Amino acid sequence: MKLLLFALTVVCGFSLFSPAIAADTGVDLQDCRIYAGPGFPGIKARCGILLRPLNPADPASPHIDLHVAVVPALTLQPEPDAFVPIAGGPGQSSIEFYAAQAGAFEKIRRKRDIVLLDQRGTGDSSPMNCELDDAAVGNDMDAAEIREATEECLEVLPQDPRYFTTSIAVQDLDALRDELGYSQFNLYGVSYGSRVAQHYARRYPDTTRTVILDGVVPPQLALGPEIALEAQRALQNVFDRCAEDDACRERFGDLEKRFAALKAQLDEAPVTVKLPDPTTGKPDVVEFGNTELSGALRLLSYHPTTIALIPLLVSEAADGNFVPLAAQHVLSSSAMEEAISIGMHNAVVCTEDTPFYKESELPREALAQTYIGPIMLESMQTMCEVWPAGVIDDGFKEPLATSLPVLLLSGAEDPITPPGYAERAMVELNNAKHLIGRNQGHGLAPRGCVPNVLAEFVNTAALADLDTTCMERLFAMPFFLDFSGPAP
Fold first, then answer.
1. Residue 408, domain member (yes or no)
2. Which residue range forms the structural domain that includes residue 412?
3. From residue 17, how far is each of 29, 75, 76, 87, 407 by CA, in Å?
4. Domain tally, the chain
5. Which terminus of the chain has a smaller tally of CB atoms within 10 A, N or C?
6. 208-214 and 184-190: which strand pairing?
């Protein structure tokens, strides 16, 4: 299941109270700390529960708890319009995402409260979790077995998955705005979160002040068929960069050819790898085949720092040392499993993506030539044959048409939302600017000077005079030539 996927703890503590947060709302905010996961430092906040009907169209339907956190502005007189980060996935906690990336938004927090809502089905907001493992997308399960596993997942979900889609999530978000008394929201959406931000701006333009889309998913796109193609493009870019770099080429040789031989070897049979579990240190045994290879490389391709490791890890595996690459697979897949709510993920994908696939347009032959292959697309389609389609608004798949100020961010080497996706999202945007980070991966907010650019945009709500010259100096980690790091 991890191949299909595109911890928060609260304890009592002291936190500043922001005057912009209404004290008599239906959300009882209490001092708390929010975390990116076990072992991470906490951030002071005020946390509470937003009660929402499972089906907003039926106020008498059972209510669910949605987890809210507000990180107060650093000024005693914050602006009346809060800043709202929305996480990706789909299925990731926005509170956990913010706690991990808070530094990227600290300059925005100088003047504005940060409002965080774990989207229904994620984090502590009535989570929709079940057991669906890697076998569902590997070679160990046929279509009938995938359907059976999906049905078992549906049976254990605590809520009806039809009501965990983006169209309902934006209603929750605006209900929270109203409860907390903010006049408008400044939206930041990363990856799938960019889909949420665009639909909120479509449905609630009057309460939207600015929009930032980072790693953009255009509304008209049905995610899935192009994932393996974009991942292949990103990996090919790594091979090309290595071939053009004297030190990388000398150290690793023809990396593209060596990778092809490695993949052919794993096509014949997986290898058994003994290694200490990178999360626990305990001895472990991993069956490492092309499914595991694909999962590790795709996630490594997301970040410029981990991109720098790819030539070394591929070379080591090609020479018979699978431990580093297998350890990376275990580490990344474990983190993904903990971060993503699979029930909410499928509720979104099976309503907003797979129903819009056109069989005649699916690039099956091209997918077969990628290192991932067609397995992600086929498994997703099989699971969604069983999964019930949920609520989706009219016009949901149309490009957002607005004159609101919209800043779009793309990484040139992004393996899942390339710059072309942002261009497709811009077709009806009348007040938009697109910034591309050279040699960058998925999600630009924390990179280099980008936090300064975001703060200037949110403060002014203007694009015309936005200083973006520093984008040309974004740092890309040189390739690691050995495990001590890049060459001096």
1. yes
2. 2-222+394-473
3. 10, 11, 9, 25, 30
4. 1
5. C
6. parallel
114-117 and 63-71 beta bridge pairing:
antiparallel
Note whether residue 326 is domain-resident.
no
Are 252 and 316 a contacting pair, CB within 8 Å?
Answer: no
Percent of the chain whose predicted confidence (pLDDT) is above 90: 80
Q: What is the pLDDT of residues 242-294, one digit of tens each?
A: 999 999 999 999 999 999 999 999 999 999 999 988 878 888 899 999 999 99
Pairing mode of beta strands 432-437, 406-411: parallel
Residue recorded with tokens 């010259």: 469
Residue 416 resides in a domain? yes
> Does the residue 238 lie in any domain?
no
Q: Which helix (H) or strand (E) holds 32?
A: strand 30-34
HSE-up (13 A, CA, CB side) for residue 195: 29
Interior/surface letters 224-243, b for 16+ CB within 10 angstroms, e for the rest: bbbbbbbbbbbbebbbebbe
pTM for this entry: 0.92
Q: Are the C-beta atoms of residues 162 and 347 closer than 8 Å to each other? A: yes
pLDDT tens per residue across span 203-225: 999 999 999 999 999 999 999 99
Task: Convert the pLDDT of each residue in 130-170 to its tens digit.
Answer: 876 544 444 567 899 999 999 999 999 999 999 999 999 99
Tokens in use for 59? Answer: 């106020």
For residue 435, give the H/E element and its range.
strand 432-437
| CATH number for 213 | 3.40.50.1820
Q: Residue-wise over 112-131: b if at least 16 C-beta within 10 A, else e?
A: bbbbbbbbbbbbbbbbbbbe
Tokens of 183: 């006049």
Span 368-427, pLDDT tens digits: 999 999 998 999 999 999 999 999 999 999 999 999 999 999 999 999 999 999 999 999
Backbone angles phi, psi at 135, to 5 degrees: -60, -25
Tokens (6 digits) for 131: 């057991």
